[in-house]
């Protein structure tokens, strides 16, 4: 059997100190560890469908509580970049049938206060303008999932807990040279820079319109739609958040995920 040799330090003998790790090495080590942690975080977030990152997102621009119907309507109108616009078709083969189109809209310039009035450009080359020229009644649909809010929170866009509004009214053309025309055009150019090219294109003759609202229906929870009066709609301020909007997240008895803004005290019913 081989006995390992042991070296003993003699009395009074000094041992050479271990050279300290340089500052640069500590910095490199810190960067490497940080990169590993960030990579792990990104992978985890992708696997969890983005729920991890949402914990750190600022919810100051989140939707209002589902019980504040007028505020939700104003919120969706102000957030909208486009709408699904329905009209009555004038095409011979489907005359009188409902027709729908995607129309870019703005209720104010980006970053400015909500007005609640939807402005949009139309051209007679498009069937929506042709329909509205014959009968200017229309309905627009707006959904909370336009920016994938519902999808990111695990809610199907068809669920009542994914807010939507149906705004019906009439399309009115705004005369060029008026203060409202200048305001609506600036709002559209701010949110849709391409609109400046639309009106400059020869032969297209785009003109500015606004939606004069007749009825607002809000579906934002189980139990059917709620109808908002114009007085309540115009009085609502979507930029102000109530305390109910910060309530903690939970699930209802059916197992569907409910965003934090929803209260679980209200009973759930079958989908309308």
In short:
The protein has eight helices and nine strands.
What tags apply to this protein structure?
seven-stranded antiparallel β-sheet, transmembrane, Pnp Oxidase, Chain A, 8 helices, disordered C terminus, CREG-like beta-barrel domain-containing protein, 272 residues, CREG_beta-barrel, Split_barrel_FMN-bd, transmembrane helix
The structure class reads alpha+beta
Spatial shape: globular
CATH superfamily of one domain: Electron Transport, Fmn-binding Protein, Chain A
Instruction: State the distance separating the first and last CA atoms.
Output: 86 Å
The number of distinct helices, counting runs of at least 4 residues, comes to 8
CATH class label of one domain: Mainly Beta
Oligomeric state of this protein: single chain
Q: What percentage of amino acids are in beta strands?
A: 15-25%
Tell me the CATH architecture of one domain.
Roll
Roughly what is the average pLDDT, rounded to an integer?
A: 81
Instruction: State the CATH topology of one domain.
Output: Pnp Oxidase, Chain A
Helix/strand order = HHHEEEHEHEHHEEHEE
List segments where confidence is low: pLDDT < 50 over at least 5 consecutive residues: 50-59, 243-256, 263-272
| Rg value | 29 Å
> How many beta strands in the DSSP annotation?
9
Largest sheet: 7 strands, antiparallel
State the share of residues found in helices, binned by percent.
Answer: 25-40%
Protein name: CREG-like beta-barrel domain-containing protein
Keywords: Membrane, Transmembrane, Transmembrane helix
Pfam families: CREG_beta-barrel (PF13883)
């Amino acid at each position: 059997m081989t006995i390992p040799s042991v070296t003993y330090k003699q009395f009074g003998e000094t041992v050479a100190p271990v050279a300290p790790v340089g500052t640069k090495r500590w910095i490199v080590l810190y960067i490497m560890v940080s990169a590993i942690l960030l990579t792990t975080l990104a992978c985890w977030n992708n696997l969890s469908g983005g729920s991890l990152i949402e914990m750190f997102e600022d919810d100051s621009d989140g939707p209002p509580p589902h019980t504040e119907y007028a505020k939700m309507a104003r919120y969706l109108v102000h957030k909208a970049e486009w709408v699904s616009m329905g009209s009555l078709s004038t095409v011979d083969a489907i005359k009188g049938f409902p027709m729908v189109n995607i129309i870019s809209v703005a209720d104010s310039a980006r970053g400015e206060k909500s007005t609640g009035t939807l402005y949009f450009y139309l051209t007679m080359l498009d069937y929506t303008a042709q329909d509205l020229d014959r009968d200017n009644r229309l309905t627009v649909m707006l959904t909370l999932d336009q920016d994938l809010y519902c999808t990111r929170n695990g809610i199907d866009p068809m669920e009542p807990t994914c807010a939507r509004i149906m705004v019906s009214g009439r399309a009115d053309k705004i005369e060029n040279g008026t203060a409202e025309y200048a305001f609506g055009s600036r709002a559209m150019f701010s949110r849709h820079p391409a609109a400046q090219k639309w009106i400059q294109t020869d032969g297209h003759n785009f003109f500015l319109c606004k939606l004069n609202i007749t009825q607002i229906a809000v579906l934002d929870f189980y139990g059917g739609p709620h109808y908002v009066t114009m007085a309540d709609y115009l009085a609502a301020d979507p930029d102000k958040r109530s305390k109910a909007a910060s309530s903690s997240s939970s699930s209802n008895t059916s197992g569907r995920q409910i965003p934090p803004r929803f209260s679980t005290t209200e009973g759930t019913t079958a989908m309308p």
